């Protein structure tokens, strides 16, 4: 359906308004991120509690030039799902946003190192993922993210009644670099930017 429809912003907004999970999943794939206002996208972030769909809101946000402003808003939220989405956006920006300075990611990395073990369970996976993504941005951040991950140690996450396991950040960073450089890319982030957008390919 996504391949057949392409981009249809009006349809995407109508689908989102249905509050149906499957309709919203399609909406985030066919929406035009540039035509959403910051307030509308913030509303989408607060209006859905189905985690796979909510994650896609971050993938929409990362395509906007004001992604860092949305990250600021969401990370300033009280502990919970919106702040978790903020960390998902940080990770997406680390891989896709070439304009944001490394110093911005270093500040987020410091916050994660200081708070990940006391953060709510819902935030720990995207925080851990953000460490990995920051470590995949470039060689300098690779070293700093790997060092932070090693200092933090294993992250305890309750995945509920599933077989999911928490990824160890430092080894995963190394694995991503080995995979991407073997394919001729300068970094895993460069590899990601060469691929189809994650919100439409997955």
Structural description of this entry:
By secondary structure, the chain is mostly helical. It starts with a helix and ends with a helix. The radius of gyration is 17 Å and the shape is globular. It has 13 helices and no strands. The protein has one domain. 67% of the residues lie in helices and 0% in strands.
Can you lay out the helices and strands and say which pair or pack?
Blueprint: H1 2-5, H2 9-17, H3 21-30, H4 38-46, H5 51-61, H6 67-75, H7 81-96, H8 102-115, H9 121-135, H10 139-152, H11 169-182, H12 188-193, H13 198-201
How many individual helices? 13
The overall pLDDT average reads 95
Per DSSP E runs of 2 or more residues, the count of β-strands stands at: 0
Largest beta sheet, briefly?
none
Distance between the termini: 13 Å
Short key terms for the protein model shown above:
mainly alpha, 13 helices, 202 residues
Task: Report a brief summary of the structure.
This protein has 202 residues and is mainly alpha-helical. It is built from 13 helices and no strands. It has helices at residues 2-5, 9-17, 21-30, 38-46, 51-61, 67-75, 81-96, 102-115, 121-135, 139-152, 169-182, 188-193, 198-201.
């Amino acid at each position: 359906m996504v391949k057949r429809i392409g981009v249809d912003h009006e349809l995407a907004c109508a689908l989102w308004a249905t509050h149906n999970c499957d309709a919203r999943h399609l909406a985030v794939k066919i929406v035009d991120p540039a035509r959403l206002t910051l307030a509308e996208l913030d509303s989408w972030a607060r209006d859905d509690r189905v985690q796979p769909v909510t994650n896609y809101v971050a993938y929409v946000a990362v395509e906007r030039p004001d992604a860092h402003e949305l990250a600021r808003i969401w990370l300033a939220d009280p502990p919970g799902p919106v702040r978790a989405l903020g960390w998902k956006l940080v990770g997406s920006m680390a891989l896709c946003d070439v304009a944001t300075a490394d110093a911005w990611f270093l500040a987020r990395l410091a916050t994660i190192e200081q708070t990940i073990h006391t953060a709510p369970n819902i935030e720990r996976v995207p925080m851990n993922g953000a460490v990995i993504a920051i470590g995949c941005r470039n060689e300098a951040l690779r070293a700093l993210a790997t060092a932070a991950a090693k200092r933090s140690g294993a992250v305890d996450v309750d995945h509920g009644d599933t077989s999911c396991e928490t990824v160890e950040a430092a080894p995963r960073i190394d694995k991503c670099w080995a995979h991407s450089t073997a394919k001729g890319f300068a970094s895993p982030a460069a590899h990601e930017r060469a691929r189809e957008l994650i919100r439409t390919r997955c």
